[in-house]
């Protein structure tokens, strides 16, 4: 008996180091120890890769009350900028059918996850990459079945003053991202920066002194990737890429203040940007159609951070203005093309083709937007802004019913960070679209107005 007891104690001492270590789960067991007890059990095992790999993102719950019905994707405002109007007949998304309804909607589809890679060096440069997805892949599917959607996916080669980027990244045109909690970011009202597009980008910095420099950015990019890269698609981007550039003066000596989503601290920046492309399509009788845009951008830390990190008592202004043609894919213009509508065609439709004389041309708009961002304390932020997009020449739209003469937005939001992970936010938006040639009546005008109240909860990880 004593020998058995002593043997048992000895075996326990021998096993003690093993018992103290992390258990090795047998996932073939029923139920699996990996998911029991609890809903997921132990899921914090480290992620490994042949290179250094970081993982992050956020969970975002949105609630939006819209005074009009903005459709199945109404948790964010429409990329077209078209708000339903009680004066427009028919059953389209901008018609009285939707203007006479309101909407109350929840969504988690703006949640994101990303993987960041720090790779091996190359010729004195650092290499890296990032892959990011959200869950807007299929808005028509069931409530529990949103699909992953590719957002960012790029590789970089970084020297001290030069960067080469290849992959999918922010569109080069119009660099301001409006800090709206609605992740449409006021794209149809002057800030059409939201699309992520395939591109090859070269960034070169030229130092004037230690704290200020010139930043030159050039890129080849394809805004529609696969959706419109077919010879039969007409009146908008076809099989050709376009050329884009930015020239910015950056002065870090003037301090920094919070930028987009208040996550990064940005220095004083001012400069110009532009884009150009042209293509021919068989169904357009081989006529060329150009895509173009140019504008000005500025970011100014009116009240700078004391130490470059703390947001308390900082105030920033950000704004831009542009003119553009045939850039409807990101909301820079309301339509792709204007001109003679083919027999049986729909006025303003992006599927319109040239007539026999080839007399269609790029739809043209101009826009401006500005915002102020103020942090009285580190964790509390206030943002307010105004943006508006106009038809560059109303005569261009003479044959188009219910075209957008103007799309404007006023927005204001408040964010509060409970800690490093949890952020709460609320937002009010007033969006108005002024239409021309209402219901096909030349010179008839009407407006559609939406007021949105939004509540958001984030969990950053």
What does it look like?
With about 450 residues, the chain is mainly beta. The protein has a single domain, classed as Porin (Beta Barrel). It is about 5% helix and about 45% strand. The chain is built from 2 helices and 19 strands. The strands form 2 sheets. It has a 16-stranded antiparallel β-barrel with strand order 1-3-4-5-6-7-8-9-10-11-12-15-16-17-18-19. Strands 13-14 form a two-stranded antiparallel sheet. A hairpin with a 2-residue loop joins β15 and β16. It is globular, with a radius of gyration of 26 Å. It starts with a helix and ends with a strand. The model is unreliable at about 10-20, about 35-40, about 225-235 and about 340-355 (pLDDT under 50).
Which characteristics define this entry?
Porin; globular; mainly beta; 19 strands; 2 helices; single chain; two-stranded antiparallel ribbon
Using the 3D structure, state the CATH architecture: Beta Barrel
CATH class, anyone? Mainly Beta
Q: Quaternary status of these chains?
A: single chain
Termini separation: 56 Å
Mean pLDDT, rounded to whole units? 84
Largest sheet: 16 strands, antiparallel, barrel
What Rg, in angstroms, do the CA atoms define? Answer: 26 Å
Strand order, largest beta sheet: 1-3-4-5-6-7-8-9-10-11-12-15-16-17-18-19
- What is the number of strand segments? 19
Q: What number of domains?
A: 1
Kindly report the name of the CATH homologous superfamily.
Answer: Porin
**Strand content of the residues, in percent?**
over 45%
Query: Percent helix among the residues?
Result: under 10%
The CATH topology turns out to be: Porin
Task: List the secondary-structure elements in sequence, H or E.
Answer: HEHEEEEEEEEEEEEEEEEEE
Poorly predicted runs of 5 or more residues: 8-21, 37-41, 225-237, 341-356
What's the tally of helices? Answer: 2
Q: What overall form do the CA principal axes indicate?
A: globular
What class would the helix/strand composition place it in? mainly beta
